[in-house]
Design a protein that fits this description.
The protein is an alpha+beta fold. Helices cover 62% and strands 18% of the residues. It has a single domain, classed as Winged helix-like DNA-binding domain superfamily/Winged helix DNA-binding domain (Arc Repressor Mutant, subunit A), CATH 1.10.10.
Length: 99
């Protein structure tokens, strides 16, 4: 499944969900999304992460592990609120669609 505007919203919710559970980093998130059928490139994922961070939904920190510099993301209080609202809307929509 290719990433388009429609699926990018699902991906953002997926990112927030995983940032709530634990800190994530880009390469891990790409693999996680692949397991769910999303084919997302770094050129699509990293701008999405940057956008979520600029909106205050996630926050990042950088860590150097030997030669590897990695950026870790976690959800913010605002992100938790947005995720809870999105889950509520998804439950309502799914209930309506599957009736």
């Amino acid at each position: 499944m290719k990433v388009n505007e429609f699926f990018s919203s699902f991906i953002k919710i997926h990112i927030l969900h995983h940032c709530l559970k634990e800190e994530i980093y880009g390469a891990w998130m790409m693999e996680e999304l692949r397991e769910h059928g999303y084919k997302i490139s770094p050129g699509s994922l990293y701008p999405m992460l940057r956008s979520l961070e600029q909106k205050g939904l996630i926050a990042s920190r950088e860590e150097q592990e030997g030669k590897i510099k990695r950026k870790y993301y976690r959800i913010t209080a605002r992100g938790k609120k947005e995720l809870a609202e999105a889950k509520g809307k998804l439950k309502e929509l799914i209930g309506e669609i599957l009736e």
